[in-house]
């Protein structure tokens, strides 16, 4: 009896119940769309007008913020005698706030417009094949006309005009800032980049400590960030940042037998120590990542890679030419010094070079 009972239980478990079989065969019912809930702006004309005023006010706030960004650029100049740390901080802060509020106001205004004023009825769009026929094009025109009617873009002139004004004003700060991307004193950019503070006998010092570096301090696999010793004599008003940006160097030591040096450059290194410009030849980012095992320098901005052992030539990425090399030697006290300055312009390669 026990065996017969167990067999019946197994058979019952293997046989799906009638209820499950029916449920599996029934098609899934379309629940339909939920009831439409009208917004307060759909029911109350005054609320709708308040929403309209809010949207175009936000767009005009964006215009004002863009104008403020341009005004901040003029109120806090950072050129020549005005290139103080205070002016630089204020310039960055207030221009940034102006641009941020300009874009934020456009975004909030557009979202509020879509949520409070644009058509919000649920619709169902059936799939259909699309072809470039006349009826299809005519239907596309109708879609745009319907979108215009539902959004009120053509009807709500205050919103439309304020949006156009905000979008137009939002690019003005960027255009204003572009004027400072190139020298405006009439000097040749190539010549400016070719003239750094490196000269014969200039000691290599650590950045930012300003400590002179001896050849014995540079161990295998190490990488030091280097500036000219005379840089410390400059103030920010005298162009400290500009000169540092051009003269900064990365100092690396490898085994002397690992260096691949042309006849011209065999005297540019010292016992496996080489010095290359830290300014990437792509767009000027700092090349500051050194891979000890592969002897590659990596630019973090766009992943250009340079081979330290082979004249810092480009082995990957968008950089157009090798990093300029600084010829170095050792003075009577064992400190590393420059033999002379760079023999080519440092920095990006998109400027015309002789």
UniProtKB/TrEMBL annotation:
Keyword Transport: yes
Protein's membrane topology: Multi-pass membrane protein
Chain intervals with Basic and acidic residues compositional bias: 1-14, 35-46
Location of the region described as Disordered in the Swiss-Prot/TrEMBL record: 1-46
Family annotation (CDD domains): Rieske
Pfam families associated with the record: QcrA_N (PF19297), Rieske (PF00355)
Residues spanning the membrane: 55-73, 93-113, 163-182
Boundaries of every Rieske domain copy: 246-337
The keyword Chloroplast belongs to this UniProt entry's keyword annotation: no
Keywords for the protein's UniProt record, in alphabetical order: 2Fe-2S, Cell membrane, Disulfide bond, Electron transport, Iron, Iron-sulfur, Membrane, Metal-binding, Oxidoreductase, Respiratory chain, Transmembrane, Transmembrane helix, Transport
Location(s) in or outside the cell: Cell membrane
Swiss-Prot/TrEMBL cofactor(s): [2Fe-2S] cluster
Protein task: Iron-sulfur subunit of the cytochrome bc1 complex, an essential component of the respiratory electron transport chain required for ATP synthesis. The bc1 complex catalyzes the oxidation of menaquinol and the reduction of cytochrome c in the respiratory chain. The bc1 complex operates through a Q-cycle mechanism that couples electron transfer to generation of the proton gradient that drives ATP synthesis.
Entry's family note: Belongs to the Rieske iron-sulfur protein family.
Protein name: Cytochrome bc1 complex Rieske iron-sulfur subunit
Organism annotation: Microbacterium gilvum
